[in-house]
Design goal:
Mean pLDDT: 93
Helix content: 40-55%
CATH superfamily of the largest domain: Type I PLP-dependent aspartate aminotransferase-like (Major domain)
Low-confidence stretches: 386-390
Shape: globular
Distance between the termini: 33 Å
Oligomer: single chain
CATH topology of the largest domain: Aspartate Aminotransferase, domain 2
Strand order of the largest sheet: 2-8-7-6-5-3-4
Order of helices and strands: EHHEHEHEHEHEHEEHEEHEHHHEH
Number of domains: 2
Largest sheet: 7 strands, mixed
CATH architecture of the largest domain: 3-Layer(aba) Sandwich
Structural class: alpha/beta
Length: 390
């Protein structure tokens, strides 16, 4: 519905006009259309300058090094490159990987593919709140472990993992540490040095930037090279070939510049809206919070609604643009494996909803969302006794 209230920022976010302008500048300026690899002439050098500017903006937000960025089509590709590329490059040292049962599909399916190639993967499960304890990660390590991959903030529940503690454990055991920060960057502090992260996956479109662009940030002191998963022209030091999309990378740089300048005030505003939304619906019978606890993103609210069949619930709330889980699961129609890992029954998983807020969410929209949510849930629950009797 064109007039529905958008509460699916965790799937993707609307493009910020300031980011659009930065991209249009590259697309409209005849001096910036060059191939950034063509540094023998001014057109290529100007395009390369745009790439370099964006790299500094990205590196500043995550405390990385501009020279150690590998541009990708998004966090999904960055996750694939980090896991498959690192595993292949370091296979001589071992063939064991540790991850969690609640990672993004791009991590889990990369690990599944590696298992088909003879690698072994340990999947650590979270507790009922959605937290993965550092001790559980350490217990899963083996002498042949070469990589640990843990998502910073979960894309369904918003739970934030203690990646700094996990990073310290990995560093003590000389194991490389990969973090998927697609949901967390710009919403909580992400510092590769403090967190002792060796490989960091990011994207733009979760933070009001363009779709189709992201990056893998490497700790150049710990890992200088990984095996490419694509093959071609040898760009980006041979780790990710292909002509760089200058306008998209400029958009990623503009996105991260805005996040750097506005993150603190914007996150506080969104947290206030999220709490207002939760306080407006939490007294409804059967409504429970998934991923409870203070260590979760200000942008995500995941709730289950008892006595409300899932499909009927989503139909009753069609004036709210929300999700039943991650966008990947919505496309496949499968129940959320994340909520299942938290111990929820399949019935309750089917009646669970993810409401996610962002930069353009307003107070008026939240108040209307509370009214719509209450009206829809109360109506469905009023029908439940009659359905049970039948």
């Amino acid at each position: 519905m064109s007039d529905s209230i958008y509460l699916d920022y965790a799937a993707t976010a609307p493009l910020d006009p300031r980011v659009r302008d930065a991209m249009l500048e590259c697309m409209d300026d005849r001096a910036l259309f060059g191939n950034p690899s063509s540094i023998t002439h001014s057109y290529g050098r100007r395009a390369a300058g745009v790439i370099e500017k964006a790299a500094h903006r990205v590196a500043r937000l995550v405390n990385g090094a501009p020279a150690n960025l590998v541009w990708t089509s998004g966090a999904t590709e960055a996750n694939n490159l980090a896991i498959v590329g690192t595993a292949d490059f370091r296979a001589i040292r071992g063939r064991h990987i540790v991850t969690t049962a609640i990672e993004h599909k791009s991590v889990l399916e990369s690990c599944k593919w590696l298992e088909s190639q003879g690698y072994q993967v340990t999947y650590v499960h979270p507790d009922r709140s959605g937290a993965v304890t550092p001790g559980a990660i350490e217990a899963a390590l083996r002498p042949d472990t070469i990589l640990v991959s843990v998502m910073h903030a979960n894309n369904e529940t918003g739970m934030i993992q203690d990646v700094a503690a996990i990073g310290a454990i990995c560093r003590a055991h000389d194991v490389l540490f990969h973090v998927d920060a697609a949901q967390s960057v710009g919403k909580v502090a992400v510092d590769m040095g403090v967190m002792q992260v060796d490989l960091l996956s990011i994207n733009a479109h979760k933070s009001c930037g363009p779709k189709g662009v992201g990056a893998l940030c490497l700790d150049g002191e710990r890992i200088k090279r990984i095996t490419p998963i694509m093959h071609g022209g040898g760009q980006q030091r041979g780790m990710r070939p292909g002509t760089l999309p200058v306008h998209q990378i400029a958009g990623l740089g503009a996105t991260f510049k805005i996040l750097t300048e506005e993150m603190d005030t914007e996150v506080a505003r969104i947290r206030g809206l999220r709490d207002r939304l939760w306080h407006g619906i939490k007294d409804l019978p059967g409504v429970t919070l998934n991923g409870a606890g203070e260590q979760r993103l200000a942008t995500i609210l995941n709730v289950s609604v008892a006595q409300a069949e899932g499909e009927s619930l989503r139909f009753a709330l069609q004036d709210l643009a929300l999700s039943g889980g991650s966008a990947c699961n919505s496309a496949s129609g499968e129940p959320s494996y994340v909520l299942r890992a938290l111990g929820l029954s399949d019935v309750l998983i089917e009646s669970s909803l993810r409401l996610s807020l962002g930069r353009f969410t307003t107070l008026a929209e939240i108040d209307q969302a509370v009214l719509s949510f209450r009206r829809g849930v109360e109506y469905l629950q009023s029908l439940a006794p009659a359905e049970v009797a039948v």
